[in-house]
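thought: fold this chain, then report.
action: predict
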Amino acid sequence: MDATTCPWCEAPRKDGPECPRCGANYAKAEAIKKHGRAAAAVAAAPAEDLAEAKIFIAEEAELDDSEVIDDAQAEFWFSAGAIPAMLLIGIGFQSMEWGRFIQRLVFTMPVHELGHAVTAWLCGFGAIPTVWVTITMDERGFVAPVAVLAAVAWTLYRGWQLESRSLLAAGGVLLLLQTILTLGIKEHTARSLIVFGGDGVGLVLSLLLMASFFFGKATQLYKGSLRWGFVAIGAGAFVDINATWWLARRDPSEIPFTTRSNGMESDALRLVNEFGWTEAALVNRHIMACLACMAVLALVYAWGVRKAWLKSQGQETR
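observation:
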């Protein structure tokens, strides 16, 4: 192994124990590369560096949060207040016309278009998300399924390598979804799901962005404060998408049936005109997605706050 480069990202080595490019600890990265699994890497590390090795490997390897959290009491208050505060700010923006416009432009549209793209990839279609539209192939192809399968395989491999139950579970869920959506449904149905996925899967993505606040204590999510940006984006998109469909449920005239100047129809209009959804089905299916994501968010929030509280009291959690 080249002693002049980082064993993880192959950047030139600098003075110090960690790579400034990827953050890897040189000694622990060499151990992982040599032994292939996290457990072997920890076992190979010098005793005095064991805690540092565990931090590098990942929190999923049963890492005690107290080893990486700066202040357990402050972390509890952050965990309890971050998501509710961001949701309240999002509701405040939603109550003002200019605020609603900014929220939709900055937060909702990227999540919405990525929702289209993720649904397309899982259904076997190539897709490229852009700012205002997601370019989707007309038929299923070869590249998208293989790329998704490769990403799933990498997730499962990393889960095995790091002995991470969360990564293994995520890989398993993605594999099941890809199998069903790519092999189990017809192309016409898949295309309708891709259109629905803008807001439907967009809700799931916004939920994941908010939920990320409680995870990754040994990663840049926590160390680099990325989680604050993620929870802000997720909350803004979550509030905006929910507001759209709860207003539509109360007043059908609020259903976003629009046509752009270039003749492109909105997702709601396409689902009704192109795929035969009724207005009632359109609204109810979006509302069901909203309610499901609210329920999951409540469960994740309760779990995350409880875990942070137990840590602040010096108690062990799992």
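thought: worth noting. The radius of gyration is 22 Å.
final: tokens above.
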